[in-house]
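Table S2 (text version). Query chain:
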Amino acid sequence: MDGLDALKTRYLAEIADASDEAAIEAVRLAALGKKGEVSLKMRELGKMSPEERQFAGPALNALKAELGDALSARKQVLGDAALEARLASEWLDVTLSPRPRAQGTIHPISQVTEEVIAIFADLGYSVAEGPQIETDYYNFDALNIASHHPARQEMDTFYMSLPKGANRPPHVLRTHTSPVQIRHMEKHGVPCRVIAPGRVYRADYDQTHTPMFHQYEGLAIDKDISMANLKWTLEEFCRAFFNIDNIELRFRASHFPFTEPSAEVDIRCSWDGGQLKIGEGDDWMEILGSGMVHPKVLSAAGVDPKEYQGFAFGMGIDRIAMLKYGIPDLRAFFDSDLRWLRHYGFAALDKPTIHGGIAR
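Corresponding structure-token output:
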């Protein structure tokens, strides 16, 4: 086959002159592409006699291999040169001073919320959410809170203004995250195990109360759940959260409209020398309210109370953050004082996990 030597010489020269990968690709397509010159000559083999193919075939294959090797070698050279140029332009002087540490920190409320979620996730609970502006029904009626209950008075609850002519009860800023329990059971049914962390609102303000604070509530519904399961769950949570093995809880009979029986829960502690120590001493401190979910609450959520039962509990995130990290005044959480935030804040990567540790 005539012209192969000239073809080889021309394409080897073009390969050597290629200055970038785009030029290399153009040469490859012109020579070895589907419509390239070498490829077109390969198709001519079928028209040749057996004697002609005996000489033309090996010559074309040798040309194709030689050009392919030349293309690969040139591409490697160009790639190495591009890398060298990039390394030369993106160098870093390691003798320079390091960047200053980021000043921002994770707020204790955000950190403790993540700690709570991590612990209950390990216990098989998922997170449920709901609106902060609630209807009167979900915030009170569905939770068996009577119309004359003190919590429904304006001195305790923030009511939204009604438009003129509205024929419905006013919406409220939710006073607890318990409405999330009703909404979750209505939407997903039972059995279920969820916690509902979030902001809640009550008309109160002093060293241990603020108009807006953070709370989480837990709910577990199934056919064979008892107060014993509730006690075990709360003990496991407190052990993990406070990182203390010898946690002791005390249950005192109480009354909440949405649970029956109801119990307030105290934790053993001491105040020796004015310092709070959890898990030791002869004192007790109330930390949460709990109980078995009232049958009327289950019915309001569309659950048969003759078939299912369960427990619920609620705890202030701000309060347990104060206990764990020695924060004396609840109001400081909302002052936006940078000095306070730098002192009590957490590093951005200090994410709580069960395997990595909850406490810092």
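Notes on Table S2: The radius of gyration is 37 Å. The first strand starts at residue 126 and ends at 127.
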